[in-house]
Amino acid sequence: MKKLFIFKLMIIAMAVTTLISCDDDDECYYVEQNDARGLIVNASPNSGDLYFFADENKINGNALNYANAQGYYRFYDGMRTFTVRDNNGNILDTEQREVNGGDVFSLFAVNNFDQLELVSFEDHLEVPGFYRAGIRLINLSPGAPNVDIYLDGHLITSNIPFKTASPFVNVEDNEYNVEIKDTQTGNTLFQKSSVVFYPNRIYTLYTKGFVDAPSGSNDNFSLEIIRNY
Asked: What is d(CA 7, CA 74) in angstroms, rounded to the nearest whole number?
């Protein structure tokens, strides 16, 4: 009995020292809490297959397609050079950042393919508590105006420019109608119903696609959801 009790304690300790990230309905990944950890996301419309590198080390073995995310991945400490490359190995953009143990961040490929760039955001993953979920909005839609997010008609965060993230905000765990609106005009740019935010979970919502899609493109303005924890 004593050994069984100790084993249960070990399982609980492992559970509270891990983080999780996944696309809305995709496979999830767990990592240890004291590692530096990074999530990679392809938010660049018409970009095709992308590969992310830390220095010369390939991060994703399989190509990352538009609107997909992978991670969290472990990274060793130090000044790291992150690059994103196309199928032919051509470097499309570079970002340098200091990586320290315990860091948690997301690295996005954004903008249209001809102007593709890397941007990163710190993931401050403080557990929101019982009956609450943490959410933030990142505006990653090329050419989009500043945007607001509404849940069931209530303003949650406002005036988010392109390539900018809102702070994480705690909301009640519930099912919501989510609206993204143009800050200046109040026009609804995108709406999605029956979005469920579960208790004690943390989410990143990011806009993608074009408000005015170029001829021949189906990458219209929409919203993607990543569960960070």
From this structure: 26
C-alpha torsion sign, points 40, 34, 203, 163:
negative
Beta carbons of 80 and 94 less than 8 angstroms apart: no
Q: Which residue, chain included where needed, has tokens 């929101």? A: 128
Specify whether the CB–CB gap between 63 and 45 falls below 8 A. no
Residue 64 CA to residue 116 CA, distance in Å, equals 14
Amino acid type, 218:
N
Q: Which residue has the tokens 């060793």?
A: 76
All domains of the chain in start order, with CATH: 1-123 (2.60.40), 125-229 (2.60.40)
DSSP secondary structure letter of residue 214: P
Rg of the chain, C-alpha, whole Å: 18
| Residue pLDDT tens, the chain, 229 long | 433 333 333 333 333 334 545 554 344 444 455 679 999 999 999 898 999 999 999 999 999 999 999 989 999 999 999 999 999 999 999 999 999 999 999 999 999 999 999 999 999 888 898 899 999 999 999 999 999 999 999 999 999 999 999 999 999 999 999 999 999 999 999 999 999 999 999 999 999 999 988 777 788 999 999 999 9
Helix, strand, coil distribution of the chain in percent, nearest 5:
10, 55, 40
Per DSSP, the residues of 148-205 read: EEEETTEEEEEEE-TTEEPPPEEEESEEEEEEEEETTT--EEEEEEEEEE-TTEEEEE
